[in-house]
Design a protein that fits this description.
It contains four helices and no strands. The protein is an all-alpha fold. It has one domain.
Amino acid sequence: MATLALILASIICVAICFVLLYSAKGSLEKTRCHMKNMKNLEEALKNQEVIQIIQKMIRDPYMENASTRNQKRKNQKHALLMARLRVLVPDKQTRKKIYGFVKKRT
């Protein structure tokens, strides 16, 4: 009887280990993806022109309801900066992180 209980306990422990291993595998994949995105962001931020574009985008934020001529001009400049950033940073996820940062800062 004791042997049967020991075998049953070891089977349960092995099953728990497999569940933990499976969940760790998913977490590892998520971490790898995140690290890849951060590496791409670091590579993009090494370029001084990208940094200047980000600073200009923070200084002149996009106006939602531009009514005056000056606000419309700022929106056009912002659109041009986004186009230049699109050329300099081809990775969509990296640009998305940059846009999120700019949105938080404005």
